UniProtKB/TrEMBL annotation:
Residues 51-90 form the SWIM-type domain. It comes from the Bacteria. SMART domains: DEXDc (SM00487), HELICc (SM00490). Gene3D superfamilies: P-loop containing nucleotide triphosphate hydrolases, Tandem AAA-ATPase domain. InterPro entries: Helicase_ATP-bd, Helicase_C-like, Helicase_SWF/SNF/SWI_bac, P-loop_NTPase, SNF2-like_sf, SNF2/RAD54-like_C, SNF2_N, Znf_SWIM. It comes from Sutcliffiella horikoshii. This is Helicase SNF.
Length: 1044
């Protein structure tokens, strides 16, 4: 097929998750090519269903893909089935073409130029760099010129040098292969290189000298910070200053007003001649320092210096009739540049007095009246009177402050006369009293009459909506609006005004109540999100609890909502169900730990209110046991109604559930729905005779019509992420199951997106959320708040204090079809051969042969490729291990993986390497000193996986850095397994250790596990630690292991 595809492209189009799954499908020979032409490939990917994939070339080198799987619309990347087909195309191309093109593409990346920066281990000569700065005048503006010196030699053309350094090329004074710069100097050099384009653009029409760079304004701040770290000299007026300092501090200029004669005053300026102004950089240079200024201040200072330099004097004469305006307008700006002083005579004539502004407010005949007065000691000014009131003493008025006050009054749309302001409009009056007046109070003294004070609502209480659980109906909530100072008879009108988005409400006493407060805005948002009837506004709104939770989603300010004690108790009962009214079944009372009792009572509480939930405890915390406890507590009700509980689980866990039920609640009558279609239909006819039905997701899909016609007491969906995709057949099937109570069990309720959480809740508690479209518009905060009472998750750290020191669990998996065929063939042959020798005379002679056959069966359980040449399929245990590895990565666990077969460890190691997961490895060939070193490195936190040969690493190692142990295959002697687990579970371990045994169901491994429990002492004698054949292997033992 004429398309170019590689793994990088496949990952870009499909994502890392789909790429990984696609690789697993390809390795397991799940991809079958049905059509292969130059422009098209049609393939079938066989998993639980057959999915058809089409890849079509478009003639431009690109290609288009399609797949029949139900991919989520929100997912923009390609699916795992397309990834599997693209990988197959890639592999076919590799097998058909020379690898030279791939290798060439791998190494064709552009070679980076040799860095001029000094490295940690440097063999090159370090070149001393010095920077010299001096003022340069361009277009009547002052700039900084920069000269460079290398090893005390001035660079004649610094631009040429910088271009050479940028390209890694040799120049007259610098060869990047021989020379280097110190880190600080190289930082300046690199920024000067970046600056070259800015310099060229900024000074485009100005001729530049070759021996100096000119610093453009855009680069000043960055270069200034870097120059402070290197050797710099500033040359100004034939004087040199060492170092570069950029500071922000007063200029220490002195502006002195003195009386010249009766006709005016003189302004003298001291210190201006000591400054050199760089207006382009908003800085001045003084006494070896650059001082940073605001843009306007620097502009004024530059103009002032230019004017005084041109006049060749440091004084400015001011005519008497200009003095007041000069003092009012110019002096405030001068104070930003330095200290302003007035001699005694000038100070007396132009004394500045503070402005005292007064605002008088009254209300007469439904009109708001206002007047303003500006007071400067004895001088009173009415700003509305065009004839300003003056005295003989000249007053320096604060025009800026006066203008602020007048602007605020004008913005309020008052009418005005020379006597004052007036307003005859209630909305404008409200706006002035609540919005403008608070701003005016920062500048004026307010004098208001009683009529004005009564117009403003003064109650300190804030509006609230009280929420309580109704006494008559404990699964309903009541929302009721309350506010102190507001009669209940006016509540409906007030809230109606709020719904109409009015800005205020006039109470019966004439007060104007602002509806623009934070609290009222929150109530308005609540009412908009939850439309209610008029009668509900006055007497309270009653809704079911679940609808009440949804209504609370619109809440952004919790302070507005007052939760009464009844509602708080309801929430506390769900979050911390410690009620003594929920007894723990006596069968498990002494087994359950406190957190498991909490989980059981949480489920009972949800069931009491008719809610569903997700028990999302971390792996190994006993979700199964908590569920069994719930079933025990409901057992009498189950039997009375003749309505069994249903457990839906992955195929690999059905027998685990049955085993756990027999272990903790043997009185429960449980069946597994498996076998032929006829067998299952017959089992359905006896549903009323059992307490618990266990089935798998695949069988539930096949038999959904049978399940949909029956009502179950409770449904537990184990590993509920199985229906995280809402467009799959599994999701549609579980939605049709009917029961009084539903719970999901999963350690990973969200793996890739929040849509998965919606899918699970839509099955176990559909009332909690609306459709997927509405759900996708909710914020994460809203979703988290709504699900909080209905999802219980504990991780190991939460309950560490009461967990046992070591948690042991067994993962039982079903062999893959290709494995089953091989296993059945070898088992039949071994049974045939073994029957010949099962007597006392021949057993001893042929024990080695029998054990070798048993080992072959165990290897098939691990991975048939351990001894079957050319085997291309996968292994059930291997796939389970990959799942555990992925979970451990997400949970931050550190894992020891044991196997007696070193070839199996090599297979695992290759997969970890493929996933980019570093690991340590240890087997019988590892030297003693390396064993210790690798253990110490692992315990120090380096790498998260350690692959260990069971016999080589089962003793003598301290690996307390791990918190998870996976026993990939079983050993005849259970003590060896215990010793392996104790590599992590020993003195110095601060974390709970999880030990996971992988067992292939229905195989020799399952028999071995049963024998370990049934004949522990006998099994220890089958093979001793020295690998010697034991005399204790009897005919009965071999018959039981081989089921003959």
């Amino acid at each position: 097929m004429n398309i170019k595809v590689d793994k990088k492209l496949i990952q870009e189009r499909c994502g890392s998750v789909s790429l990984k799954s696609g690789e697993a499908f390809r390795r397991a020979d799940k991809v079958k090519i049905e059509e292969w032409t130059n422009d098209r490939c049609i393939a079938v990917v066989s998993t639980s269903e057959d999915f058809h994939v089409v890849v079509t070339a478009d003639g431009t080198g690109d290609f288009h893909t399609s797949c029949t799987c139900p991919k989520l619309a929100s997912v923009k990347i390609e699916c795992q089935h397309i990834a599997a087909v693209l990988l197959t195309i890639y592999e076919k191309h590799l097998s058909q073409h020379d690898l030279s093109e791939e290798v060439f593409r791998l190494f064709q990346a552009d070679k980076k130029p040799t860095s001029g920066s000094q490295l940690h281990f440097e063999k090159r000569e370090v070149v001393d760099v010095a920077f010299a700065l001096k003022p340069v005048v361009k277009d009547k503006e002052n700039f900084l010129g920069i000269e460079l010196s290398l090893n005390q030699r001035v660079v004649q053309d610094p631009r040429k040098l910088l271009h050479a350094i940028k390209n890694g090329k040799q120049s007259d004074l610098f060869d990047p292969k021989v020379h280097c710069f110190k880190k600080e100097a190289d930082a300046v050099i690199q920024h000067l290189i970046d600056m070259l384009d800015d310099e060229k653009t900024f000074f485009e029409e100005i001729e530049l000298l070759p021996q100096e760079l000119i610093l453009p304004p855009s680069s000043f701040r960055k270069v200034a910070s870097l120059l402070q770290q290197v050797e710099v000299k500033m040359h100004l007026n034939k004087q040199a200053y060492d170092g570069f300092k950029l500071i922000k501090e007063p200029l220490f200029l002195r502006f002195f007003f003195t009386e010249e004669n009766a006709n005016g005053v003189v302004l003298k300026v001291d210190g201006l001649n000591d400054l050199f102004v760089f207006r382009a950089y908003n800085t001045v240079f003084k006494d070896g320092c650059f001082i940073s200024l605001d843009t306007d201040d620097c502009r004024r200072l530059a103009e002032l210096k230019r004017m005084l330099d041109a006049s060749k004097t440091n004084s400015i004469p001011i005519a008497l009739n200009q003095v007041q305006m000069f003092v009012e307008k110019v002096v405030p700006g001068l104070r930003k540049l330095g200290k302003v002083e007035l001699d005694e005579t000038v100070a007396k004539r132009f004394a500045k007095t503070p402005l005292v502004a007064k605002l008088y407010l009254d209300r007469v005949k439904n009109r708001l009246l206002a007047s303003i007065e500006f007071q400067y000691e004895q001088v009173m000014i009415n700003p509305l009177d065009p004839k300003e009131n003056r005295m003989n003493t000249m007053v320096i008025r604060d025009y800026d402050k006066e203008q602020i006050i007048l602007d605020l009054m004008e913005d309020s749309e008052f009418g005005s006369t020379e006597e004052g302001y007036f307003l005859h409009n209630e909305e404008l009056e409200y706006h002035f009293l609540y919005h403008v007046l608070p701003k005016l109070q920062r500048f004026v003294q307010v004098y208001a009459t009683t009529a004005i004070r009564n117009r403003i609502f003064r109650e300190s209480a804030k509006p609230q909506i009280r929420i309580r659980v109704k006494k008559e109906r404990t699964n309903w909530l009541e929302f009721k609006f309350e506010m102190d100072g507001i009669p209940e008879s006016q509540i409906r009108e007030l809230l109606s005004a709020l719904e109409e988005k009015r800005k205020y409400y006039r109470l019966n006493n004439g007060s104007l109540l602002s509806l623009e407060t934070r609290e009222f805005e929150e109530i308005q948002r609540f009412l908009q999100a939850n439309p209610v009837q008029d009668e509900d506004l006055e007497h309270g709104l009653n809704v079911p609890i679940i609808k009440g939770f949804k209504m609370l989603d619109s809440v952004k300010d919790d302070a507005v909502f007052s939760l009464e004690e009844s509602f708080r108790q309801f929430l506390e009962e769900i979050r911390n169900p410690t009620s003594e009214n929920i007894p723990v079944p006596k069968q498990v009372d002494k087994i359950l730990r406190d957190y498991q009792i909490h989980g059981y009572k949480w489920m009972k509480t949800l069931a009491h209110y008719g809610f569903g939930g997700i028990l999302a405890d971390d792996m190994g915390l006993g979700k199964t046991l908590q569920s069994i406890t719930f079933i025990l507590s409901e057992l009498s009700d189950i039997r009375q109604k003749k309505c069994p509980a249903l457990i839906v689980t992955p195929s690999s866990l059905t027998y685990n559930w049955l085993s756990e039920l027999k272990k903790f609640a043997p009185e429960i009558k449980a069946i597994i729905m498996d076998g032929t279609r006829k067998d299952r239909e017959q089992a359905f006819s006896r549903l009323k005779e059992v307490d618990v039905v266990i089935t798998s997701y695949p069988l539930l899909r096949r038999d959904i019509n049978l399940y949909a016609t029956n009502l179950f007491h409770t449904v537990f969906f184990d590993e509920a992420q199985a229906f995280k995709n809402p467009v799959t057949q599994t999701f549609r099937a579980v939605k049709r199951v009917k029961s009084d109570y539903k719970f999901a069990l999963t350690g990973t309720p969200v793996e890739n997106s929040l849509e998965e959480l919606w899918s699970i809740f839509h099955v176990v508690f559909p009332e909690l959320f609306m459709g997927l479209k509405e759900y996708s518009n909710l914020t994460r905060k809203t979703i988290a708040r709504r699900i909080r009472p209905f999802m219980l998750r504990r991780v190991k750290e939460d309950v560490l204090a009461e967990l046992p020191e070591k948690i042991e669990s067994l993962e039982s998996v079903e062999l893959l079809p290709e494995q089953k065929k091989l296993y059945a063939a070898y088992l039949a042959k071994l049974r045939h051969d073994t029957l010949k020798h099962l007597n006392k005379d021949t057993l001893r002679k042929n024990k080695i042969r029998i054990l070798a056959g048993l080992t072959r069966l165990r290897q098939i359980c691990c991975h048939p490729s351990l001894f079957v040449n050319g085997y291309k399929g996968s292994s059930a245990k291997f796939e389970m291990l990959l799942q555990l590895i992925e979970e451990s990565q997400r949970s931050g666990r550190r894992v020891l993986i044991f196997s007696q077969f070193t070839k199996m460890l090599e297979l695992i190691g290759r997969e970890l390497a493929y996933q980019g997961l570093p690991y340590f490895y240890l087997d019988g060939q590892t030297p003693s000193e390396e064993r210790v070193e690798r253990c110490e490195r692992f315990n120090s936190g380096e790498r998260d996986f350690f692959l260990i040969s069971l016999k080589a690493g089962g003793t003598g190692l301290n690996l307390t850095g791990a918190d998870t142990v996976i026993l990939y295959d079983l050993w005849w002697n259970p003590a060896v397994e215990e010793q392996a687990a104790d590599r992590a579970h020993r003195m110095g371990q601060t974390q709970t250790v999880q030990v996971i045994k992988l067992v292939a169901r229905g195989t020799i491994e399952e028999k071995m596990n049963e024998l370990q429990d049934k004949k522990r002492h006998l099994i220890e004698e089958i093979i001793d630690p020295g690998e010697k054949v034991s005399k204790a292997l009897t005919e009965e033992d071999i018959r039981e292991i081989l089921s003959i």
